[in-house]
């Protein structure tokens, strides 16, 4: 399937930014919008923008991602992640165009040590996870849908764990980082290449897309400082040491079965992605 024109929501975020760049690099027309151009919670505006643009598909990156704040702002988080997603899905269904929705490891309960498979039962741990799960249920009703679950995301455009670690490391000379949560860091630059490949096919369904390899946040931090050539003392701590409003999953291991089955390339290792990312932000 040849995609001629894409609409990308959340263009100011890490992922939306990289997807539009990737499309530009491939001469695929992509229009990036954010809340100023299309407030996704406004059904009328969503209908107007999507219908007038003559798009072949919508890649929906816009979301409420402030995980702890969501515990206090349930209504607002739901409005963005559930109602906003529904508004887009309704128009995609009406126009019979594919919709790609980004979800999260937070739809699972984060227990155990085995990889989460794409069609495993979902039991979110917190408000943010619950709203992303409800968004998944809406998107699943579309005949042409991609649900791409991602985790531990970092990109050039915006804040993330790597930037936070580098800043705190330089300020304090030492950091404490949790070592009982396991997952795979994911570089939006790598992810954008995969999803632009994916949206040009009709291989619909649920996918997990993270960079290859596993680590704890503690191991991730150690590798960040090592690659950045910084001598920072990193202390491993239990997640109970941090008083966070929202409960975090301990197990974010994600199976890539659907990528393999449908012939998509897995992403490079997270260590390789980190190395390229550090060079990129150093420019």
Can you offer a commentary on this structure?
The protein is an alpha/beta fold and 283 residues long. The protein has helices at 14-25, 43-53, 67-70, 74-95, 127-139, 161-172, 188-199, 217-228, 257-261, 270-282, and strands at 5-9, 29-33, 57-60, 99-104, 145-150, 153-154, 174-178, 182-183, 186-187, 205-208, 211-212, 215-216, 233-237, 267-269. The protein has a six-stranded parallel sheet with strand order 2-1-3-4-5-10, sandwiched between helices. The chain has a two-stranded parallel ribbon with strand order 6-9. Helix 2 packs parallel to helix 4 (74-95), helix 4 packs parallel to helix 5 and helix 6 (161-172) packs across helix 8 (217-228). The longest helix has 22 residues, at 74-95. It is globular and about 55 Å long. The two termini are 37 Å apart.
